[in-house]
Amino acid sequence: MTNPSLLILPGDGIGPEVMAEVRKIIDWFGAKRDMTFDVTEDLVGGCAYDKHGTPLHDDTMAKAQEVDAVLLGAVGGPKYDALDFSVKPERGLLRLRKEMDLYANLRPAQCFDALADFSSLKKDVVAGLDIMIVRELTSGIYFGEPRGIIKDGNERVGINTQRYTESEIARVARSAFELARKRGNKVCSMEKANVMESGVLWREVVTEVHQAEYPDVELSHMYADAGAMQLTRWPKQFDVIVTDNLFGDLLSDLAAMLTGSLGMLPSASLGAPMANGRPKALYEPVHGSAPDIAGQGKANPIACVLSFAMALRYSFDQGAEAARVESAVEKVLADGLRTADLLGEEGVTPVSTTEMGDAIVAAL
Amino acid sequence: MTNPSLLILPGDGIGPEVMAEVRKIIDWFGAKRDMTFDVTEDLVGGCAYDKHGTPLHDDTMAKAQEVDAVLLGAVGGPKYDALDFSVKPERGLLRLRKEMDLYANLRPAQCFDALADFSSLKKDVVAGLDIMIVRELTSGIYFGEPRGIIKDGNERVGINTQRYTESEIARVARSAFELARKRGNKVCSMEKANVMESGVLWREVVTEVHQAEYPDVELSHMYADAGAMQLTRWPKQFDVIVTDNLFGDLLSDLAAMLTGSLGMLPSASLGAPMANGRPKALYEPVHGSAPDIAGQGKANPIACVLSFAMALRYSFDQGAEAARVESAVEKVLADGLRTADLLGEEGVTPVSTTEMGDAIVAAL
Ligand SMILES: CC(C)[C@H](C(=O)O)[C@@H](O)C(=O)O
Ligand SMILES: CC(C)[C@H](C(=O)O)[C@@H](O)C(=O)O
Description:
Keywords (chains A, B): Amino-acid biosynthesis, Branched-chain amino acid biosynthesis, Cytoplasm, Leucine biosynthesis, Magnesium, Manganese, Metal-binding, NAD, Oxidoreductase
Subunit structure (chains A, B): Homodimer.
Strand order of the largest sheet of chain A: 2-1-3-12-11-4-5-10-8-9
Pathway (chains A, B): Amino-acid biosynthesis; L-leucine biosynthesis; L-leucine from 3-methyl-2-oxobutanoate: step 3/4
InterPro entries (chains A, B): IsoCit/isopropylmalate_DH_CS, IsoPropMal-DH-like_dom, Isopropylmalate_DH
Helix content of chain A: 40-55%
Bound molecules: 3-isopropylmalic acid
Radius of gyration of chain A: 20 Å
Binding site for NAD(+) (chains A, B): 77-90, 288-300
Oligomer: homodimer
Mean pLDDT of chain A: 96
Shape of chain A: globular
Low-confidence stretches of chain A: none
Distance between the termini of chain A: 26 Å
């Protein structure tokens, strides 16, 4: 049997630092659990642009299509802000999502007990929070045509198109219902059906899929603006939230911030099953490239480590091993180890990025 | 000299109840301050649909164009959920905004000291909060064409178009800069320029207007997802936020919820100056029609009362009289009067909608 294959794309800013810690975990699995991954590393984002003049080289794209799972760090930085839209670091990430057809973006927003004080929300509002946002990731206004900046008479006009087909909505709705069955059995779908026809269709199709295939799951609908409010007011009312690409972008970031510890949150982007039965998959932390702290040993590697745990669970069907990694993370937190983003309490032990990685390996 | 004219559109749900209290304030101004308004009342939303088969009759639209200011309660309710998109209650509101060309929607998010405990956020995060969201209100994906649900082969496809012209962006940017000069002199503009070309144009035009006309104001830019995060993390970093119609919808609701007292927040929607120099204007509370509590005397009339205060300030140049209304509201809160939405603390006095209105009049 061949080893499972991983493509690692550390990217920009703190990406390489946090990914270096994940490499330690991967090595540990090879040495101690007889799970060896064939790892290749490559460039994405600003560093790919620096080398190739494009944020994602065609060869890298081809590799991503072949491996069992892609692990990405983060992309972007002020150095690239002035670049033309078409070669911005983000385009590399968006191309991966689109060409791998990773339509279901899973973004858990979990509040770690040891860190509940970090939230700007009251402790009782967030302690024990555990919601899953399922964001459609390959369509909507991110990719719709026509798009661009055109001239209309004397004026420039900026245009983007939100476009959702029935099957695009149905497949991500299925992902949400499937997940809900393994969790709290509740899905809340969010759109602006009161204002947008694409939202009207979204609501219709989610309802149809529910009635035909998942009548046992509890389904509710909410306008996305009310959703933003309710997430802020009492987030524990939700179990699984399913929403489109753009609303999902805002709402998942909002949900992440509720937990108070952005440096802790992983994500999985999943597509259709490949020939080997594994879904196309890309895993990445929710946080960005944080150029302001890059290279200083301040970055928290946990989000990236937990993204690898998601890979174990969703790509390699190793739920128990995923839980092992998650428990190791909980243990080091309970032991009081904290990277720079989590300092502030009394009696904790400040650690660097690499010290945190080493501690997690030790806890495994 | 003729009296200033007001068109009052109570709308659905709690709209009529809260507007009845505003009528008392308006009457007080006639009797005690020699400021008599010529008031007409009419229908909008579900009640207009019930009577006319349309959520906004052409005659009502014509009146709205003629008066000095429109005061609206709220629209919508479950009774109308199944209506066709084109006659939903919301279409009445959207038609008013569009045909009156009310491009600048001012949504203050203020945290009242007496109510800071109501927020789901920690007190130090929200106490003293005072930000102003300026939302573009007549363009973007709310109104762009093409739109609708079409058939593509066997599939339904939902389509909406985000479309912003240079002049649409420039005029709302000017509104934001003007407001900032009277406040903290800071504007943060939010879009998704990393993903959407309409966001790229938005950022360019805001920057051009800033450099050419408002170099004295401090301008920053933020991606809208990061904006949602930062509003949650530390909202006091902001003074004025300017953003598009859809992002503004979500972000202003989020900001409103931070304050913990949605029943307190007014809004103004302003257009170009009319022949008499006054801007076209519509004022409405941020809260919705709350059909679940309608008709029970539980609604908080303060948001609607403060919307009238905004009318005094922005339409009738009566800043001192607006402040008088605002002080009266602060006084009744300091006296411990609370409508049903604000109960929970010790030692407060529960009051009904009408009792709250009467108390504000008494405090004037
Ligand atoms: C980096 C950017 C293109 C991306 C997005 O908008 O999807 C990010 O915000 C995210 O949520 O993954
Ligand atoms: C009622 C609805 C059409 C409206 C909107 O989406 O603009 C509301 O949410 C608002 O923010 O005023």
